[in-house]
Amino acid sequence: MAIICYASRWFEFPACIDFVQIPRSTRGRPPLSNPKGKAKDGLWGLWPSDGVVFDRTCTLCPRLAAFLAKGREAHPDYWCAPVAPFGDRRARLVIVGLAPGFHGANATGRPFTGDFAGVLLYRTLYRYGFASRPESVSRDDGLELIDCRITNSVKCVPPGNKPLPVEIRTCNRYLAAELERHAPPGTVLLAMGSVGHQAALRALGLKPSQFAFSHGAEHRLPTGQTLLDSYHCSRYNTQTGRLTEAMFERVFARARELLGPAPRGPARATPQATAGAASADVRSAGVSSRRASARAKSGRAKS
């Protein structure tokens, strides 16, 4: 058993955990390539591990590093590593979440993918033109965000989905680097919950006490960005009625209003349009079949 002092607290970890077996940083290494050729900024649209905005090998928080090590032992097929931001680095909408869920992003390696919270989030993003499809299944499912990026306040899954304050502060260095480089004035930041709200403000060098969190709140920041607040779309919040789908959609409707119409591109097939097209195809096929049958009968009659 190893005993480590961290932030004036003592933690016990199994002796088998080696905290130095992973290199401290991947800075300077080229980003991984996407075998399917779909990535623009990194693997499948995920941020490359540059050691500044994101570090795939970070072990700065001993409690989280130990929890990930245990997770890799129990679930060898899980991602069980820091989860990168997902989406365009030039995006004008940046969603700041809390942390990966153990059986969600921690398993799949992509924010809000694989758990209940992602169902509502990606469906809403698609509805307002920020995603190419309404659901997120895996890192390589072809989903692309449109003028949008999703990042987390804490990049590693915390025990019980509750990161310690010291862990939030430690990981804030990555969010600060991300927003400094890729969230210029005019960007809309959408905080998912009070932790995301406070983390975004601290990353911008602002005091959270000067900007009260409440669902639907809108803050014009002195740094030039606009911060929108929403309750987190967790299963607990939605099942208890603290957050309804209509409440959630209103926040994204406001983000769309602030940013203007969605960028032009290939027309997105809505579920209604897809169903209508399918029905039209069936009807067309039926008509063609009847016409072909009639021609065949006419040909036999003439012969």
Protein described:
β1 and β2 (9-13) form a beta hairpin. Helix content is 36%, strand content 12%. The chain has helices at residues 62-74, 105-108, 116-127, 165-182, 193-203, 235-239, 245-259, 271-302; strands at residues 2-6, 9-13, 86-87, 93-97, 148-152, 188-192, 218-220, 226-230. The protein has a domain at 83-271: Uracil-DNA glycosylase-like domain (Uracil-DNA Glycosylase, subunit E, 3-Layer(aba) Sandwich), CATH 3.40.470. The model is unreliable at 1-41 and 265-303 (pLDDT under 50). The strands form two sheets. A six-stranded mixed sheet has the order 3-5-4-6-8-7. A two-stranded antiparallel sheet has the order 1-2. It is an alpha/beta fold and 303 residues long. The radius of gyration is 23 Å and the shape is globular. α4 (165-182) packs across α5. The chain contains eight helices and eight strands, in the order ββαββααβαβαββααα.
Mean pLDDT, nearest integer? 80
**What pattern of helices and strands is seen along the backbone?**
EEHEEHHEHEHEEHHH
Describe the strand arrangement of the main beta sheet, using strand numbers. 3-5-4-6-8-7
Q: What general outline do the C-alpha atoms trace?
A: globular
The CATH homologous superfamily of the domain at 83-271 is termed Uracil-DNA glycosylase-like domain
- Structural classification: alpha/beta
Sketch the major β-sheet: 6 strands, mixed
Mind telling me the C-alpha Rg? Answer: 23 Å
Fold-level CATH name of the domain at 83-271: Uracil-DNA Glycosylase, subunit E
Distance between the termini: 93 Å
**Helix coverage percent of residues?**
25-40%
The fraction of residues in strands falls at 5-15%
What is the subunit arrangement here? Answer: single chain
CATH architecture of the domain at 83-271: 3-Layer(aba) Sandwich
Q: Enumerate the spans where pLDDT stays under 50 for 5 or more consecutive residues.
A: 1-41, 265-303
Return the CATH class of the domain at 83-271.
Alpha Beta
